[in-house]
Protein backbone atom coordinates (compact mmCIF):
# COMPACT_ATOMS: atom_id res chain seq x y z
CA UNK A 1 0.00 0.00 0.00
CA UNK A 2 1.20 3.46 -0.72
CA UNK A 3 1.10 6.18 1.86
CA UNK A 4 1.97 9.83 1.74
CA UNK A 5 4.81 9.61 4.23
CA UNK A 6 6.61 6.60 2.90
CA UNK A 7 6.68 4.87 -0.41
CA UNK A 8 5.66 1.46 0.88
CA UNK A 9 4.86 -0.29 4.08
CA UNK A 10 6.46 -3.63 4.96
CA UNK A 11 3.16 -4.99 6.35
CA UNK A 12 1.74 -5.54 2.88
CA UNK A 13 0.71 -9.13 2.25
CA UNK A 14 0.10 -10.48 -1.19
CA UNK A 15 -2.38 -13.26 -1.68
CA UNK A 16 -0.87 -14.51 -4.91
CA UNK A 17 2.11 -16.80 -4.78
CA UNK A 18 4.12 -16.83 -7.96
CA UNK A 19 7.03 -18.81 -9.11
CA UNK A 20 8.36 -18.22 -12.55
CA UNK A 21 11.41 -17.44 -14.59
CA UNK A 22 10.81 -13.73 -14.32
CA UNK A 23 10.42 -13.78 -10.49
CA UNK A 24 13.21 -14.12 -8.00
CA UNK A 25 11.01 -14.36 -4.93
CA UNK A 26 7.95 -16.48 -4.34
CA UNK A 27 5.89 -13.73 -2.73
CA UNK A 28 5.85 -10.82 -5.16
CA UNK A 29 3.22 -8.23 -6.00
CA UNK A 30 1.64 -8.21 -9.43
CA UNK A 31 4.18 -6.74 -11.83
CA UNK A 32 2.43 -3.55 -12.86
CA UNK A 33 5.59 -1.46 -12.74
CA UNK A 34 4.10 0.87 -10.13
CA UNK A 35 4.13 -1.07 -6.86
CA UNK A 36 7.10 -1.81 -4.71
CA UNK A 37 7.74 -5.28 -3.40
CA UNK A 38 8.30 -5.83 0.33
CA UNK A 39 11.77 -6.25 1.79
CA UNK A 40 13.33 -3.63 -0.48
CA UNK A 41 12.92 -5.57 -3.71
CA UNK A 42 11.61 -3.71 -6.71
CA UNK A 43 10.01 -5.12 -9.81
CA UNK A 44 11.76 -4.44 -13.09
CA UNK A 45 11.17 -0.94 -14.41
CA UNK A 46 9.25 -0.66 -17.65
CA UNK A 47 11.19 0.75 -20.55
CA UNK A 48 10.59 4.45 -21.03
CA UNK A 49 10.60 6.22 -24.37
CA UNK A 50 13.49 8.63 -24.94
CA UNK A 51 12.86 12.02 -23.33
CA UNK A 52 14.42 14.07 -26.14
CA UNK A 53 12.73 14.48 -29.50
CA UNK A 54 14.49 12.89 -32.45
CA UNK A 55 16.92 15.17 -34.23
CA UNK A 56 16.95 16.02 -37.89
CA UNK A 57 19.76 14.33 -39.71
CA UNK A 58 21.90 16.36 -42.13
CA UNK A 59 19.97 15.42 -45.32
CA UNK A 60 16.70 16.46 -43.68
CA UNK A 61 18.28 19.68 -42.43
CA UNK A 62 19.41 20.52 -45.94
CA UNK A 63 15.91 19.95 -47.28
CA UNK A 64 14.32 22.18 -44.64
CA UNK A 65 16.92 24.92 -45.08
CA UNK A 66 16.63 24.72 -48.87
CA UNK A 67 12.86 25.05 -48.73
CA UNK A 68 13.08 28.01 -46.35
CA UNK A 69 15.58 29.78 -48.60
CA UNK A 70 13.50 29.13 -51.70
CA UNK A 71 10.41 30.62 -50.07
CA UNK A 72 12.31 33.58 -48.63
CA UNK A 73 14.00 34.46 -51.91
CA UNK A 74 10.94 34.10 -54.12
CA UNK A 75 9.95 37.35 -55.78
CA UNK A 76 6.64 38.73 -54.59
CA UNK A 77 3.75 38.23 -56.96
CA UNK A 78 3.35 41.44 -58.93
CA UNK A 79 1.97 42.49 -62.23
CA UNK A 80 -1.30 43.97 -60.98
CA UNK A 81 -2.37 46.68 -58.56
CA UNK A 82 -5.34 46.43 -56.22
CA UNK A 83 -6.82 49.89 -55.70
CA UNK A 84 -9.47 50.57 -53.09
CA UNK A 85 -11.40 53.84 -52.88
CA UNK A 86 -13.24 54.32 -49.59
CA UNK A 87 -16.35 56.37 -50.34
CA UNK A 88 -17.86 57.59 -47.09
CA UNK A 89 -21.64 57.91 -47.34
CA UNK A 90 -22.12 60.43 -44.53
CA UNK A 91 -23.13 63.91 -45.71
CA UNK A 92 -22.06 67.24 -44.12
CA UNK A 93 -25.70 68.07 -43.24
CA UNK A 94 -25.98 64.84 -41.19
CA UNK A 95 -27.75 62.81 -43.87
CA UNK A 96 -26.53 59.61 -45.45
CA UNK A 97 -26.21 58.56 -49.07
CA UNK A 98 -28.07 55.40 -49.97
CA UNK A 99 -26.34 52.53 -51.78
CA UNK A 100 -28.53 53.34 -54.81
CA UNK A 101 -27.15 56.91 -54.90
CA UNK A 102 -23.58 55.56 -54.78
CA UNK A 103 -24.43 53.13 -57.60
CA UNK A 104 -25.82 56.01 -59.68
CA UNK A 105 -22.68 58.08 -59.03
CA UNK A 106 -20.41 55.19 -60.09
CA UNK A 107 -22.48 54.51 -63.21
CA UNK A 108 -22.12 58.17 -64.17
CA UNK A 109 -18.46 58.79 -63.16
CA UNK A 110 -16.69 55.40 -63.12
CA UNK A 111 -18.65 53.63 -65.86
CA UNK A 112 -17.16 55.60 -68.78
CA UNK A 113 -13.63 55.54 -67.27
CA UNK A 114 -13.17 51.98 -65.94
CA UNK A 115 -13.73 48.57 -67.49
CA UNK A 116 -15.07 46.98 -64.30
CA UNK A 117 -14.94 47.06 -60.51
CA UNK A 118 -16.31 45.51 -57.35
CA UNK A 119 -18.32 47.49 -54.81
CA UNK A 120 -18.27 46.42 -51.14
CA UNK A 121 -20.38 47.79 -48.30
CA UNK A 122 -18.57 48.53 -45.02
CA UNK A 123 -18.76 50.55 -41.81
CA UNK A 124 -16.20 53.28 -41.35
CA UNK A 125 -14.96 55.12 -38.28
CA UNK A 126 -12.68 58.12 -38.21
CA UNK A 127 -11.79 61.11 -36.05
CA UNK A 128 -13.02 64.44 -37.35
CA UNK A 129 -11.08 67.73 -37.29
CA UNK A 130 -12.85 68.72 -34.06
CA UNK A 131 -11.69 65.48 -32.36
CA UNK A 132 -15.09 63.81 -32.44
CA UNK A 133 -15.47 60.21 -33.57
CA UNK A 134 -17.56 59.72 -36.70
CA UNK A 135 -19.21 56.39 -37.59
CA UNK A 136 -20.63 56.15 -41.08
CA UNK A 137 -21.56 53.61 -43.70
CA UNK A 138 -18.93 53.33 -46.42
CA UNK A 139 -18.80 51.95 -49.93
CA UNK A 140 -15.46 50.50 -51.01
CA UNK A 141 -14.70 50.56 -54.73
CA UNK A 142 -12.27 47.72 -55.48
CA UNK A 143 -10.39 47.69 -58.77
CA UNK A 144 -7.63 45.40 -60.11
CA UNK A 145 -5.55 46.94 -62.89
CA UNK A 146 -2.06 46.88 -64.42
CA UNK A 147 0.39 49.32 -62.81
CA UNK A 148 0.16 52.82 -64.24
CA UNK A 149 -3.18 52.32 -65.95
CA UNK A 150 -6.34 54.06 -64.74
CA UNK A 151 -4.38 56.56 -62.62
CA UNK A 152 -6.05 59.62 -64.13
CA UNK A 153 -9.49 58.00 -64.08
CA UNK A 154 -9.21 57.07 -60.40
CA UNK A 155 -8.14 60.60 -59.43
CA UNK A 156 -11.03 62.09 -61.43
CA UNK A 157 -13.49 59.79 -59.63
CA UNK A 158 -12.06 60.83 -56.25
CA UNK A 159 -12.29 64.55 -57.05
CA UNK A 160 -15.85 64.19 -58.39
CA UNK A 161 -17.02 62.36 -55.25
CA UNK A 162 -15.46 64.94 -52.92
CA UNK A 163 -16.95 67.82 -54.94
CA UNK A 164 -20.44 66.36 -55.41
CA UNK A 165 -21.05 65.13 -51.86
CA UNK A 166 -19.00 67.63 -49.79
CA UNK A 167 -16.58 65.01 -48.46
CA UNK A 168 -13.31 65.90 -46.72
CA UNK A 169 -11.47 63.23 -48.68
CA UNK A 170 -11.66 59.82 -50.35
CA UNK A 171 -9.12 57.32 -49.03
CA UNK A 172 -7.16 55.49 -51.72
CA UNK A 173 -5.14 52.34 -51.04
CA UNK A 174 -2.89 50.80 -53.73
CA UNK A 175 -1.43 47.33 -53.14
CA UNK A 176 0.72 45.31 -55.58
CA UNK A 177 -0.85 41.88 -56.09
CA UNK A 178 -0.56 38.83 -58.28
CA UNK A 179 -3.74 38.11 -60.22
CA UNK A 180 -4.76 35.97 -63.16
CA UNK A 181 -7.98 35.78 -65.11
Q: Fraction of residues in helices?
A: 10-25%
The CATH topology of the largest domain is Alpha-Beta Plaits
The fraction of residues assigned to DSSP E strands is: 15-25%
CATH architecture of the largest domain: 2-Layer Sandwich
- Count of discrete domains: 2
Q: List the strand order in the largest sheet.
A: 2-3-1-4
Number of helical elements: 3
Please provide the count of β strands. 4
Mean pLDDT over the full residue set: 78
How far is it from the N-terminal to the C-terminal residue, by CA? 75 Å
Gyration radius, rounded: 38 Å
Class of the largest domain, according to the CATH hierarchy? Alpha Beta
Return the structural class. Answer: alpha+beta
Largest sheet: 4 strands, antiparallel
**Shape by Cα distribution:** elongated
The stretches of 5 or more residues where confidence is low (pLDDT under 50) are none
What is the chain-wise order of helices and strands?
A: HEHEEHE
Polypeptide structure, described:
This protein has helices at residues 58-73, 99-109, 151-165; strands at residues 80-88, 118-127, 133-145, 171-177. It folds into two domains: 1-74, no CATH class; 80-177, Alpha-Beta Plaits, CATH 3.30.70.120. The chain is of the alpha+beta class and 181 residues long. The chain is elongated. The chain contains three helices and four strands. The relative contact order is 0.15.
Amino acid sequence: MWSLRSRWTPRVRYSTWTAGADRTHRCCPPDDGLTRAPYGRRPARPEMPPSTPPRLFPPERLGVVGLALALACAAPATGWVRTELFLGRGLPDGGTLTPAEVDAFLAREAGPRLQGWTLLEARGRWTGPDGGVVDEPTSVLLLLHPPGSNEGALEEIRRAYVREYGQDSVLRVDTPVGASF
